[in-house]
């Protein structure tokens, strides 16, 4: 729903729930544990509403989620916004290159091969650059001794017979082979077929997304909408962390608490668009009275229903 509509509906929802003197915040990005602690301390003596969000830029003309590098009007982009784009950029670049530089081939003799450049086969721990490395045991067939050796080599590229697992996956996807010709692997380079190694200077390890997204990078970059996937994973972890912190540190005198998480969909950096949307995802509601505290979670359907009503 539009940002303005969401804010007004949230205000009315809080009044219905009996919240008194609770300020309705703008969507906020609590990217550090210190910030989360400050939130708890600053609203310890009144009803409180905490809003946790992550931003993804969206261009309706393209019909896809994207990030700052593709903005039509990059001057409008706020670099201080909590958005996964900058952190993901070097990993997406490596994945995009690998999709172009790794080939699948069916030889005239009927052999099915995967051809890999040398730089995705070696994990050079001395390099200062991030590297994408292929999990060779996932894509290549081992010989009778259990060793994986090239079927053929050409310069700095190595061809292997594809594994039975990979062949079955391609068959299940009705992959079309062209006998005697090779084709880039493209979208068939799945997240379980590679990993990122030697995270280098091109990655900001102080970025707030480093801790939440690093374990999931291969599945994120291979997802059809990686920035949306990254925002969701980040938001899920931060919401869980926030609830744990509130449960541990919140004073028992706190009357009512609503913690709501959702996704900011921002179209404003794109030429000709000036709208922002909010996608409510989940919420945690807790009340305290003479009988003690009572907490409950609202899933997306229930939360959306409450806001609409």
Brief account:
By secondary structure, the chain is an alpha+beta fold. The chain has helices spanning 3-16, 33-42, 85-101, 136-139, 164-172, 209-213, 217-221, 226-249, 300-308, and strands spanning 48-59, 64-66, 103-106, 112-117, 131-134, 152-154, 157-161, 182-184, 194-197, 256-266, 276-289, 292-298.
Write the layout of secondary structure elements.
Layout: H1 3-16, H2 33-42, E1 48-59, E2 64-66, H3 85-101, E3 103-106, E4 112-117, E5 131-134, H4 136-139, E6 152-154, E7 157-161, H5 164-172, E8 182-184, E9 194-197, H6 209-213, H7 217-221, H8 226-249, E10 256-266, E11 276-289, E12 292-298, H9 300-308
Parallel strand pairs: 1-10
Antiparallel strand pairs: 1-2, 3-4, 3-8, 4-7, 5-9, 6-7, 10-11, 11-12
What does this structure look like?
This protein has 9 helices and 12 strands. The chain has 309 residues and is α+β, with helices and mostly antiparallel strands. Strands 2-1-10-11-12 form a 5-stranded mixed beta sheet, with helices on both faces. Strands 6-7-4-3-8 form a 5-stranded antiparallel beta sheet. A two-stranded antiparallel sheet has the order 5-9. A hairpin with a 5-residue loop joins strand 3 and strand 4. The longest helix has 24 residues. The protein is elongated. The chain starts with a helix and ends with a helix.
Radius of gyration: 24 Å
Spans of at least 5 consecutive residues with low confidence: 67-77
Classify the beta-strand content into a percent band: 15-25%
Mean pLDDT over the residues? 82
End-to-end Cα distance, whole Å, is 14 Å
Total strand segments: 12
In the sheet with the most strands, the strands line up as 2-1-10-11-12
Helix content: 25-40%
**What's the helix count?**
9
Secondary-structure-derived class? alpha+beta
- Compressed to H and E, one letter per element, the order equals HHEEHEEEHEEHEEHHHEEEH
Shape: elongated
For the sheet with most strands, the description reads: 5 strands, mixed
């Amino acid at each position: 729903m539009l940002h303005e509509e969401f804010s007004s509906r949230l205000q009315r929802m809080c009044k219905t729930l009996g919240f008194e003197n609770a300020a309705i915040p703008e969507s906020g990005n609590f990217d550090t544990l210190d910030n989360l602690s400050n939130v708890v301390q600053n609203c310890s003596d009144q009803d409180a509403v905490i809003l946790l969000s992550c931003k993804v830029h969206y261009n309706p003309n393209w019909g896809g989620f994207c990030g700052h590098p593709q903005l039509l009007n990059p001057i409008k982009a706020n670099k201080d916004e909590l958005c996964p784009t900058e952190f993901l950029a070097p990993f997406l670049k490596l994945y995009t290159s690998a999709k172009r530089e790794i080939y699948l081939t069916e030889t005239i003799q009927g052999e099915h091969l995967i051809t890999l450049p040398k730089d995705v086969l070696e994990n050079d721990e001395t390099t200062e650059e991030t590297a994408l490395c292929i999990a060779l045991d996932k894509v290549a067939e081992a010989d009778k001794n259990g060793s994986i050796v090239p079927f053929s080599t050409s310069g700095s590229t190595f061809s292997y017979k594809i594994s039975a697992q990979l062949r079955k996956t391609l068959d299940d996807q009705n992959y079309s082979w062209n006998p005697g010709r090779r084709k880039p692997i493209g979208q068939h380079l799945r997240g379980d077929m590679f990993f990122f190694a030697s995270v280098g200077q091109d990655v900001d390890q102080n970025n707030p997304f480093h801790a939440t997204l690093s374990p999931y990078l291969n599945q994120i970059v291979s997802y059809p909408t990686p920035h949306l996937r990254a925002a969701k994973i980040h938001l899920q972890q931060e919401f869980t962390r926030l609830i744990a912190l509130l449960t541990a540190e919140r004073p028992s005198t706190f009357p009512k608490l609503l913690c709501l998480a959702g996704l900011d969909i921002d179209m404003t950096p794109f030429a000709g668009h000036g709208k922002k949307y909010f996608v409510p995802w989940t919420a945690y509601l807790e009340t305290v009275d003479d009988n003690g505290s009572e907490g409950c979670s609202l899933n997306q359907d229930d939360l959306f229903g409450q806001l609409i009503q």
